[in-house]
Amino acid sequence: MQYSPLTSTLQEIEADAVVVAIGPDNPLTGLAADLDNVVGGALKRLYDAGEVTGKRLELVPLFAPHGVNAPIVLCVGTGPEESIDAAAAYQVAGSAARYLASRQRNRVAFLFPGSWPSRFATNLVSGIHTGCVGQDLYRRDRARFPFEAVQLSGMASSAIHEGQIVGEAINLARRLVNEPPSAIFPETFAAQAAAVAADCGIDVEVWDEQRLEKERCRALLAVARGSTKPPRLLKLTYQGNADSDPMLALVGKGVTFDSGGLSLKPSDSMKTMKCDMAGAATVVAALQAIARLKLPINVMGLAGLVENMPGGASYKLGDVLTARSGKTIEIHNTDAEGRLVLADVLDVAVEQGASKIVDLATLTGACVVALGTDVVGAMTNNQPWCENVLSCAKETGESVWQLPMFSHFGEEIRGDVADIKNVGAGRWGGAITAAKLLEEFVGDVPWVHLDIAGPSFLEKPKPWQDGGGTGVMVRTLVELARRGI
Ligand code: BES
Ligand code: MN
Ligand code: ZN
Fold first, then answer.
1. Which among 96, 379, 391, 480 is placed 20 to 30 Å from 86, CA to CA?
2. Residue 17 in contact with residue 71, Cβ under 8 Å?
3. In a domain, 186, yes or no
4. Is the pLDDT of residue 117 over 90?
């Protein structure tokens, strides 16, 4: 997709579709007034009849309006101007794009009010980019047709460039999640990540089983044992600064399919478990965007890639694993596998000299029970670092809410046979007991755990995005890297 600033007036545009953003206040001023003039007062008549109101995400298509050189003008409601924030910008742009991408439309012009803050520009562009791409990877008759050329009014070309890079990264994360588990498993995930990295100047290292053995990643290896697919550990290094400068580590859970293992999931819960590598996909995508934006920071991306399957060689309930750090973990449920994988990968991050860590994981159903499907759970061992991450999420319009890490949650995972157990005593507070296990492996390094089990995958579409992977947290991680650590 090609993006360029729009310089022509509404009458001069030649396109397959034109989008005009319209708010409910002063309905016939600014862009709406221009449109109304061009179409000979038709917009005013629609307002008067209550057909167009400017309510947020309202979509009203005007077909072949007289005076405009396009077969369709789509009015998209923005909602009240003072309530427009980053999330609204992403959604408004995405909804219009998703509507128009339902059939082939190559050249689309977007007219957004010049009065909108420029910091929304990136979100508008990335919203368009994700709105017009769907999950129809294997359909003969496509459901979405991405545009070829997009023109945007009232936007600096630097913001357009940035929005496109971020949008492409979000779509990369979405695609990796949407691919079936027969296509994306540890080896193929690592190979695709390596190709992405080679393309944007990121160093790649992939640890195979032998290397994982040598590195004593026995918790990760145990999870992988039930599967015929061998595990991998992916290490991406982006150097945007001097060697000696601090390093941000982004760590992702990459369970390419989670059947639950011997603690087998019921079919309904297993149905979407190809999404269990969303954390790893987010890490790869964020690194791609950070490298392409040439942000001045050092970032290491780590992903633990395994498939969790039942089989003759599966790890079992009652097994005791010795994690890479030397701590022992007693297995009470093989479906609590993500924390075991992350235990070893977090230990690698610490050993590699991470100054700050953020991990991303579709870790617990309990987090979805606590916060719903649209909110990411944050847990930390360091409040200032967490506030930094929360503030980046706020800036980019992603919903993140912090959960407490009181020490009594840690008591729940004390082991009788081993140092720790891999699940809490009961099921209450499950998102936090899982985080408490991770905390055991980060030492003193400031760390934030983001449980993305709910928001990383849409079972039903949103107006601004098709179902499937969402690429949640890519924008927040890019903002975090932009601010530096
Ligand atoms: N991958 C799942 C968590 C999950 C649930 C992700 C729903 C996305 C949507 C994780 O490995 C898991 O199975 N967690 C268990 C933990 C339990 C056994 C302590 C869960 O949440 O039920
Ligand atoms: Mn599981
Ligand atoms: Zn899992």
1. 379
2. yes
3. yes
4. no
Same domain, 109 and 224: no
Q: For residue 98, tell me if it sits in a domain.
A: yes
Query: 266 near 365, Cβ under 8 Å?
Result: no
Report CA-CA distances (Å) from 327 to 154, 251, 347. Answer: 56, 20, 11
Q: Which residues pair with 361 in a beta bridge?
A: 451
Residue to mutate, 273, 364, 368, ligand 1, most ligand atoms under 8 Å from C-beta: 364
Give Dmax over CA atoms of the chain in angstroms. Answer: 80
CB-ligand 1 contact for 364 (6 Å cutoff): yes
Kindly state if the Cβ of 453 falls inside 6 Å of ligand 1. yes
- The length of the chain in residues reads 485
Say yes or no: 341 and 436 in one domain. yes
Where a domain ends, among 138, 155, 172? 155
The tally of domains found in the chain comes to 2
Q: Are residues 190 and 118 in the same domain?
A: no
Would you put residue 202 in left (φ > 0), alpha (ψ -120 to 50) or beta?
beta
Domain boundary pick from 113, 138, 155: 155
Give yes or no for residue 412 CB within 6 A of ligand 1.
no
Residue 266 clears pLDDT 90, i.e. is over it? yes
Residues with CB under 5 A from ligand 2 (ion): 258, 335, 337
Tell me how far apart the alpha carbons of residues 54 and 47 are, in angstroms, rounded to a whole number. 9
- Within 381-452, strands assigned E span 400-402, 420-421, 447-451
Q: Which domain holds residue 41?
A: 2-155
Q: Is 265 a catalytic residue?
A: yes
User: Which residue among 98, 218, 232, 339 is the active-site one?
Assistant: 339
Q: How do residues 140-163 score in pLDDT, each as one tens digit?
A: 999 999 999 999 998 889 999 999
Q: Assign residue 307 a region (left: φ > 0; alpha: ψ between -120 and 50; beta: otherwise).
A: beta
Fill in the amino acid letter for 46. Answer: L
Cα of 379 vs its chain's centroid, Å: 18
Distance 336 CA to ligand 2 centre (A): 5
Tokens of 113: 């009010």
Atom number, ligand 1, closest to the C-alpha of residue 456: 8
pLDDT in tens, 455-485: 999 999 999 999 999 999 999 999 999 999 9
Report d(CA 383, CA 378) in Å as an integer.
11
What does pTM read for this prediction? Answer: 0.98
DSSP 8-class letter at 82: G
